[in-house]
Amino acid sequence: MAKPLILIIAAVPIVFAAMIAIPMIINPQIPFSATNSDDRISIELTRYDLKKVSFGLTDRLTPIKSEILTISNEGNVRYLVTENEHPLPEKTMTLQKDEVKKLTAMIKETGFMSIPIDSIPADESVSEYTKFSLKVTLNGNTKQIQWSEGNATSTFVPPIITMVESELERVIEKFN
Predict the structure, then answer these.
(1) Whole domain around residue 27: which residue ranges?
(2) N or C: which end of the chain has fewer CB within 10 A?
């Protein structure tokens, strides 16, 4: 009689551990519970492919290609591309509510809005690189950050920024 009782008592912590672990394994890394139904977000990512052109004594950065991605709180997405100073037709689509909720949760959970830096410049020696500008408005608070791609700067680019960048680039890939 004692052995079945010991097995039952030993199984209780295992069952509780499984109840805690299974939702953590199944859910995405950033919980949607971080968002509220009254959260309002607006995101604008601008991406410039720049090239340094020399005019003798002076150098000038010229954009080879620029891309602007804007996402509204309702999930409306606009994508504008300009190549060699010629604008291409605007593309639009609508994101699912879950995708907007995931972006909102990522911005809130990672502490993106409280990053102390505003700009990460490229090194002077780099002649071609990609520069990003991200403006996020969350519940009336705005954060704008400009940075150069990782291999164009010796300054550390925080992982929070690159994580948001890669999520937004996934949205851009839907247009291509």
Answers:
(1) 2-33
(2) N
In this structure, are 113 and 50 located in the same domain? yes
3-state SS class at 163: helix
SS3 of residue 147 by DSSP: strand
Q: Which regions of 2-158 does DSSP assign to beta strands (E)?
A: 41-54, 59-71, 76-83, 86-87, 91-94, 119-120, 128-138, 141-148
Asked if 13 and 71 sit in the same domain, the reply is: no
Domain containing residue 165: CATH number: 3.30.1560
Into how many domains does the chain fold?
Answer: 2
Q: Are residues 112 and 163 in the same domain?
A: yes
Instruction: List, for residues 2-53, the tens digit of each pLDDT value.
Output: 677 676 776 666 665 556 655 555 554 555 555 677 889 999 999 999 988 8
CA–CA separation, 84 vs 58, rounded Å?
21
Confidence of residue 89 (pLDDT cuts 50, 70, 90): very high
Query: What's the CA gap between 40 and 35, in Å, rounded?
Result: 10
